């Protein structure tokens, strides 16, 4: 084989290899780990909120504990409908708590995925999964993020993987669904949260004031199609 043909063949083989690598590289994995609650370092990624910030009496905690099957996140607390007398906040409803992730370093891009999955064990209550995206719906130029929410029913006492299609998340404004046709910008995800309120959500789920507890193993994004 001539030197020219050898060089041509080597170049062709390298090009085929590069093209094959690029195609594989463009195909994202079928799942992506977003949060893993197997380390106490995970606590640094989250902060808690409740109606107590507005004169309510609910309380919550987030811990990383080993309850017999390895380290897991435990989000628990108490939902109360009581409101402190003389509170400067005129809240219309109480009895809610949540855990919200601190903002990612930039954005995470979930455009290649169609489902959010949470592995958890709960108490029979209905929880709310929220995804926060860059603000362009409610008030451009303001600090408040756009929020997209979906209910999650957590069966009591058994580990369960809740799979929520991203298409099921509805745009909300301060807890109320926005009655408009909008599409989530999945490439600009800022953070997530999991919350619970005494009002329930899914028919048949446990509701009302009182204690709540949910254990968390991980949160992932999946590509099912």
Automatic annotation (TrEMBL):
InterPro entries, per the entry: Galactose-bd-like_sf, NADH-UbQ_OxRdtase-assoc_prot30, NDUFAF1
GO biological process terms held by the UniProt record: mitochondrial electron transport, NADH to ubiquinone; mitochondrial respiratory chain complex I assembly
GO cellular component: mitochondrion
Keywords of this entry: Chaperone, Mitochondrion
Domain NADH:ubiquinone oxidoreductase intermediate-associated protein positions: 35-215
Domain of life assignment: Eukaryota
Annotated compartments: Mitochondrion
Gene Ontology MF terms in the entry: unfolded protein binding
Coiled coil spans: none
Family: Belongs to the CIA30 family.
Protein name as annotated: Chaperone-related family protein
Species for this entry: Populus alba
